[in-house]
Amino acid sequence: MLRFLFVLVLFGVAVYFLVRMFQDRGMMPQRPTRPQRSAPPRVVGPDDDEDFLRDLDRKRLDPEDPEV
Fold it and tell me: Is residue 68 part of a domain?
């Protein structure tokens, strides 16, 4: 009975290492993965937009600027 248990454990260890070897080498079929969702675009508020703030400063300093 002890020999049978020993052979069973050795067989289990051998199968475990064979499966791990196949997984590491990429020989095992992989489960199909779902495509990753892309993150929504980050919304930048007007107080974070440097161009907007620069334009406000220019308008405040020179209200008669014809370019604005």
Answer: no
